[in-house]
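ARCHIVE CARD
Drawer: 12
Card no.: 0347
Subject: one protein chain, sequence and derived structure
Cross-reference: see card 0346
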Amino acid sequence: MSCRFAVPIAAVCSVLLAGCAAGDQTVSAPPARPGTSAAPTASPDPTASPDPTASPDPTPAPAARILEVRISGGEVSGVEPRVSVSLGESIIVRVTSDVADEVHIHGYDVRQQVAAGGTVALPLTATIPGGFEVELHNLGKQLFQLRVA
């Protein structure tokens, strides 16, 4: 073989070998950042049984029942004279009044001042069974009877 073919054959061989070597390369994940793990994260197994020790998803609390009460010219409107709620039920007594006074839920000792022309909201969880007067305290005006059972 002559020298004039040796250079071109060597060039062709090195191109072919470089191409083959490129096809054999394995791709690796980039290095992990400091403070992180380079281990891959596993996807949950859809056939796996649920973990019996895991706590169930929290159930959202039901919304409070709103009792709207209006006092105008000494007259009460918006609620029945007796309102029944279940033991453990959450309520909000929302009072709009044309006179300044203290709204008071007896038995629970929940009270709040309402300004003339204002509105107040009294949140309550019905934890005590029985009948309770809801009134404008200073005027002694009953708004309704709260029945908890």
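Annotation on reverse: The domain at 65-148 is CATH 2.60.40.420 (Immunoglobulin-like). Confidence is low (pLDDT under 50) at residues 12-30, 36-41.
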